[in-house]
Write a structure and sequence with these properties.
By secondary structure, the chain is mainly β. About 10% of the residues lie in helices and about 30% in strands. The chain has a four-stranded antiparallel β-sheet with strand order 2-1-3-4. It is globular. The mean pLDDT is about 100. InterPro entries: Cupredoxin (IPR008972), Phytocyanin-like (IPR039391), Phytocyanin_dom (IPR003245). It holds the Pfam family Cu_bind_like. GO terms for molecular function: electron transfer activity.
Amino acid sequence: FNYDATIHNVVAVNRRGYTSCTTPAGAKVYNSGKDKIKLAKGLNFFMCSTAGHCKSGMKIAINAV
């Protein structure tokens, strides 16, 4: 993930967190601006936890096969 770390982050969330745009307790937060994340097989969910960003669509679900 490449992004401006001064205004964004990447949070690995579960399906519920992804759907509701909430960060579950213990979620891994990435904030380097150049994050490399190894995907688990199956669905992986990520969002930005900056206020309003996820609800504006800054989230992604990736199906790793």
